[in-house]
Amino acid sequence: MEFALITFLNGLGYGFLLFLLSSGLTLIYSMMGVPNFAHASFYMLGAYVAYAIAGVLGFWPALLIAPLLVGMAGALVEHYGLRIVHRYGHVPELLFTFGLSYLVVELVQLVWGRSPVPYRIPPELDGTLFTLYSTSFPIYRGFMLLVAALMLLALWLLLRHTRIGLLIQAALTHPQMAEALGHNVPRVFMLVFGGGCALAALAGVIGGNAFVTEPGMAAAVGSIIFVVVVVGGLGSLAGAFITSLLIGLMQTFAVALDVSLASLGVQVPSGSALAPLVRLTLAQVAPVLPYLLLVVMLVVRPKGLMGKREG
User: Fold this and answer.
1) What is the distance between the alpha carbons of residues 275 and 266, in angstroms, rounded to a whole number?
2) Per-residue pLDDT of the chain (311 residues; tens, 9 = 90+)
3) Considering only CA atoms, which of 210, 217, 285, 212 is closest in space to residue 255?
4) Where are the alpha helices (DSSP H) in the chain?
5) Residues linked to residue 131 through DSSP beta bridges, in sequence order
6) Per-position DSSP letters for 217-254, written without gaps between them
7) How far is it, in rounded angstroms, from Cα 206 to Cα 222?
């Protein structure tokens, strides 16, 4: 019971962090119709900007200021970059975001270097939230879970129960109709893109000190984000939420369960080609599981869990 509950809470925290990242990309895909390859770079940028601000003002101002600054940078990228190449089709948009991802990594390395930076958990959140039997659950893990849950609630309330949320949904699904009614659809698109980048930056602010803040952090989560978005259903926030929790729990339990086929009693000759596979532990194959889920989903249900069929 102790192992299951602690692992479940850790997986829940990781899943909510994935949703913070994937929700912004899901909104951006709904708006642009093309995956934003630079999305994980805004996650990395949020961690580095928060590190710089925290060194001067402290962690709590950085928690508010860093997502706003990165969101403004994302809005400028949409206004002066994506909006220009949008008229030429999806391939230039893909190339633009792909190149932007490398540009952000190079800029980060020029400013902060190639080595990890000492972006640490604030002292007031560095402790034990509760102890279950003999296992301690850190305060910061609970804080990450709380922030992600509050942002999920705020995003749901914004999109479902406010006028601007209704306008965003209308602009995403029927842009010509919304523009005919007098709404500035390009401005809505810019705000949505900036908001998606701000969500990614917020994930970087609260995840950068829990993990490692270094130039390779964008590449480490970039592929996982696309797995979440595709498996959940392109453009579906509900699907992204379900898939984020599923992958978070699946990977966390897989890492914690250090078992193999050999430990379960499966025996093969030592010289057999299958011997290395039998000795592989579940923890060793944990990084592959999300991509295996992606392949299975594309074969069984190409539109994803909550995706809608075209036409």
Assistant:
1) 10
2) 777 888 888 888 888 889 888 888 888 887 767 778 889 999 999 999 999 999 999 999 999 999 999 999 999 999 998 888 888 877 888 899 999 999 999 999 999 999 999 999 998 888 888 777 777 888 888 898 898 888 888 888 887 888 887 887 777 777 788 888 788 888 888 888 899 899 999 999 998 888 889 998 998 888 899 899 889 887 788 888 899 999 999 988 888 877 776 666 667 677 677 667 777 777 788 888 899 999 999 899 888 888 765 54
3) 285
4) 2-32, 39-54, 59-77, 83-85, 90-112, 139-161, 163-173, 175-180, 185-208, 217-232, 237-256, 275-279, 282-285, 289-300
5) 136
6) HHHHHHHHHHHHHHHH-TT-HHHHHHHHHHHHHHHHHH
7) 17
> Which tokens hold the place of 125?
């959140």
- Residue 141, both tokens: 């893990």
Contact 223, 18 (CB under 8 A): no
Q: How far apart are the C-alpha atoms of 43 and 67, rounded to whole Å?
A: 9
- Burial grade of 309 (CB within 10 A; 0-12, 13-18, 19 or more): exposed
Under 8 Å between Cβ of 194 and 27: no
CA-to-CA dists, residue 159 to 117, 173, 178, angstroms: 36, 13, 16
Beta strand pairing call for 135-138 and 128-132:
antiparallel
Question: Which of the 8 DSSP states describes residue 260?
Answer: B
Are the C-beta atoms of 203 and 140 separated by less than 8 Å? Answer: no
